Amino acid sequence: MMSLFVFTAEGQTIPVDMSIFNDFYRNQQLLGKVDSTISFTSKPFFPVEALKSSNTFDPTETFEQEKKTDFSGLFRFGKKNGVIQLLPFTWLYQVNTHHPYSLNDGPMIPARGHQSLLSGGMYFRYKWLSIQFRPEIVYAENNPFETFSAHKSDQVLKAVYQFNNLIDLPEKFGDKPYQRTYAGQSSVRLTVGALSAGISSENLWWGPGFRNSMMMSNSAPGFYHFTLNTVRPVRTPIGSFEGQLVGGRLDTSGFFAIDTNLVVNKSKLYHTKRNDWRYFSGVVLTYQPRWVPELFLGLTRTFITYYKDMGHRFIDFFPIITPLEKKYNYGTGESTTAGDQRISVFARWLLQKDHAEIYFEFGREDHAYDLRDLFLQPEYSRAYLWGFKKLFPLKGKVDQYLQLNFELTQIEDNTTNPRQGPIIFYTHGEIRQGYTHLGQMIGAGIGPGSSMQTGTFAWNHGLKSIGVQLERYVHNNNLFYFGVKDIRANWVDLNLAALGTWNFQNLLFTTKMEIIRSLNYQNNYSPIPNSLTDFWIPGWDVYNFQAQVGITYRF
């Protein structure tokens, strides 16, 4: 039975949203139990190809003994050359009591009230061909709440509209319950050796971050794309390489949470966006030098352009091969099509003897004109993140350890931006849907102008984990500086969450119970009445409670 399952499991991916498995494998690498040449900087992850795992969804190799039934959801055909297998079925429930709060939850939307996500499906493989069908169904109650533009001055409203004219990031997804069905974590692939090519709608995650990613995350639904990627490190005499090349389609949300007809000082604030889908092309490449075996160096580059503006040359579909310096991309250069480019570099240093890792990523919204420009102001239009993780194995406890990790993400602009031009990371003056798909970020979920600091402490044993998370989330300081300007009115969330994962027989449980204290919610500073006349009179704060519960059934 076990040898049969080894055969049938080959090719399945662990979706980005199944963090219980992705985190387990990455922690096992820190403990020295997983190949140190795997970077974990490009997901979805292929554990069978990369680790020769016997079962994609049984990383502890205990499921066969613990599961309740003998039914494996597995069928053979074609003289054992083909298999069909049922994929895990997952139900994820989320509720926000006061206002929307949404990060890294895929097709779920920022909404107040109850929300559910259902996913499941099957996997087919015949020789080199594999088909993974795992659709997702989302339903959100989508209750009303106080939006940002309510009761704001003309000055603030002008700043709000200027920002919304550069990105498709609605506060509210309509006034009715929201329901959608997506292809989800589905793909059709040909996999030979370390390379795989095909079409997919899976979420992607690029870079070393665990809470945020500069270039690709699961804060939006997955988008349709073709892919050429490695499924395990490609070893060469100079080191190991991993990577992915994609080209796909980004769509607009179709929702406008603000009044599109509002006029201030005889000027209409809302500017209609083009009704055209956007072509996305991107690449991530990770290199582990042979001479520094625990160091991973990486590069990501992405381009977005309107489909109707595209040509039909090879370079139009793969502009990522154009020169990095802007002076070569205009006039008589390789590309005259308006496009929105981003680039980042990252590093991950694996310290297996210390059961730890440190990492960073540095990105730019706008590439430098030339090398001199880059040296003069490398921080222009920049964003970055850095973090670390440390595991503490418990003496006398088999496979038990404590986990401590911290991550800082900074998307907010710096002082060089207003001097060169009002560039805000993830927005664009010509590709005015910005770095979004269906109204949500495909990069860091915190969005433009924001920053976040996250700390987590947890006990782990196999797939079981219990922990706490502290977080500080600063909302869109770019909008604050240009519009609100009252130094007492920054919108900052202070969050405390209890985290848990548990496996029992066929079931996997995940939960997150989070209390969110929003200081100056929606940048509304309302002093608490008292007898003091001091400038720093405390303001009213609001509280939001978010509960997330997930149940997965493995066959």
Which key features would you list for this structure?
555 residues, mainly beta, Porin, 18-stranded antiparallel beta barrel, two-stranded antiparallel ribbon, 40% strand
The CATH architecture would be: Beta Barrel
Profile the largest sheet: 18 strands, antiparallel, barrel
* Percentage of residues in strands: 35-45%
Question: Radius of gyration over alpha carbons?
Answer: 24 Å
Helical proportion?
10-25%
* CATH class type: Mainly Beta
How many individual helices?
9
CATH-assigned homologous superfamily: Capsule assembly protein Wzi
Number of domains: 1
Q: What sort of overall outline do the alpha carbons produce when their principal axes are compared?
A: globular
Oligomeric state of shown chains: single chain
Secondary-structure class? mainly beta
Average pLDDT confidence is 89
Instruction: Give the beta-strand count.
Output: 28
- Report the end-to-end length measured between terminal Cα atoms: 14 Å
Low-confidence stretches: 1-10, 330-334
CATH topology: Porin
Structure description:
- With 555 residues, the chain is mostly beta strands.
- The protein has one domain (2-553): Porin (Beta Barrel).
- It has 9 helices and 28 strands.
- The strands form 4 sheets. It has an 18-stranded antiparallel barrel. Strands 1-10 form a two-stranded antiparallel ribbon.
- A hairpin with a 5-residue loop joins strand 16 and strand 17 (295-306).
- The radius of gyration is 24 Å and the shape is globular.
- It starts with a helix and ends with a strand.
